[in-house]
Amino acid sequence: MSAQLPRSDGSANGTFAGDAVNATWDASNNVTLGQLGGSLPASLEGVLVGPVSLAGAFAFQPGLLFQSATISGSSGGRPVQAVATNEGGRGSVAVKVAGSFAGTAFSVVGSLASDLSQGIVRGTVGSDSVEVLAKAEQSMVKVTGTYRGPAALFALIAGSLLFFL
């Protein structure tokens, strides 16, 4: 799979876990934040291990620090609903995301090292514990861990970590 990250808009094409990926995203840039009353809209459309259409509204604290988000849409024709909140943490940025992804309940917390050299997502997907670690090593980012659940949700978790590293 190839993608240009980080970007406010762009696309990803290729394969992920043996399935086709052809997705585009669009997130308003930070300059727009003041014009929108403190909320940035974002969307993801295309094929991400099946058809996906997601939209979110992201709220920020002063200094453009993430506060919360609501995400809704569908994956494979099934509903997706999630709420994300800032969990904060010394020396890191942490976000809790909980909801339902195409019929599977999930609750995860993702955090990034302050130097953006690594990130981790831990929590539950369905009744299974998950842990996904992304770590920058030389000129690549290595993703490892334990995950069982919808492949499209894993692609979003891994993609979110890769976006920031």
Describe this structure in words.
The chain has 165 residues and is mostly beta strands. The chain has one domain. It has 1 helix and 12 strands; from the N terminus they run E-E-E-E-E-E-E-E-E-E-E-E-H. It has a 12-stranded antiparallel β-sheet, with helices on one face. The two termini are 16 Å apart. The relative contact order is 0.13. The N terminus is likely disordered.
- Net shape: globular
Q: In percent, how helical is the residue content? A: under 10%
Question: Quaternary arrangement of the chains shown?
Answer: single chain
Strand content: over 45%
The total tally of domains equals 1
Itemize the secondary structure elements and their pairings.
Blueprint: E1 2-3, E2 9-16, E3 19-27, E4 39-48, E5 51-61, E6 65-75, E7 78-86, E8 92-101, E9 104-113, E10 118-125, E11 128-137, E12 140-146, H1 151-164
Antiparallel strand pairs: 1-2, 2-3, 3-4, 4-5, 5-6, 6-7, 7-8, 8-9, 9-10, 10-11, 11-12
Summary keywords:
12-stranded antiparallel sheet, 12 strands, 8% helix, disordered N terminus
